[in-house]
Amino acid sequence: MTLRHAAPFLALLIAGAATAQQAKAPARHDSNAPVDFDADHMEVHDLEHRAFLTGNVRAVQQDMTLTADRVTANYTGSMANSGPSGGGSPQVHRMDATGHVVVTRPTEVAHGDYGIYDLDKRLVTLIGKVTLDRTGPNASTVRGGRLVINLNTNQATMDGGAVGGNGSTGKGGRVSGRFTVPQKNDNSATPAAKPAGK
């Protein structure tokens, strides 16, 4: 699958990085942690080193959860050799998700049509009708065609285009969204000047 850049990037710093609240940002995600999964059905093609998970798929790694209708996991090793008498669990390198893909982290939820978690590169990519909602003091909503989350740097990048230029929810293939604004207390307003002579 080839990704093409269809619009300039909008860099978004996760959880308030580069702000005064950077010290409160969550710890970096541990991409070496095991991935626990469950699904309605699993089909293993051990010679191809692929496992197909279908139906209410849920994969959890540390504090990040990926849900989708279907996930294809590419691994090394062998499922047949895992277990008490085998050579250990297979090692997953990439997961491709389709259908109602949702990635949830402590301060954000991202939705898309397709998802790729490249465990070797520590990159999570969502493609097609992507929405990223952030909570907390830096709450915001951003929409576009493709989102890439770098788990090494804790940085996200959104652009307006998707594969082949389709699947964008930004206006005219652009990134769109809304930032919240800190609300000022009405009592802090400067009092009106008194009329002359009073």
SSE arrangement:
Elements: E1 10-13, E2 36-38, E3 41-45, E4 50-61, E5 64-76, E6 91-105, E7 108-118, E8 123-134, E9 140-150, E10 155-159, E11 176-179
Antiparallel strand pairs: 1-10, 2-4, 3-4, 4-5, 5-6, 6-7, 7-8, 8-9, 9-10, 9-11
Can you walk me through this structure?
Pfam families: LptD_N (PF03968). Keywords: Signal. The chain has strands at residues 10-13, 36-38, 41-45, 50-61, 64-76, 91-105, 108-118, 123-134, 140-150, 155-159, 176-179. The protein is mainly beta and 198 residues long. Strands 1, 2, 3, 4, 5, 6, 7, 8, 9, 10 and 11 form an 11-stranded antiparallel sheet that branches. The protein has one domain (10-19, 32-178): lipopolysaccharide transport protein A fold, CATH 2.60.450. Strand 4 (50-61) and strand 5 form a beta hairpin. It has no helices and 11 strands.
Task: Name its key features.
mainly beta; lipopolysaccharide transport protein A fold; 11-stranded antiparallel β-sheet; 11 strands; 0% helix
Largest sheet: 11 strands, antiparallel
Distance between the terminal alpha carbons, to the nearest Å?
76 Å
CATH architecture assignment name: Sandwich
Number of domains: 1
Q: How confident overall, as mean pLDDT?
A: 78
| Computed structural class | mainly beta
Shape: elongated
Region (Disordered): 159-198
Protein name: LptA/OstA family protein
Keywords: Signal
Biased composition (Gly residues): 161-175
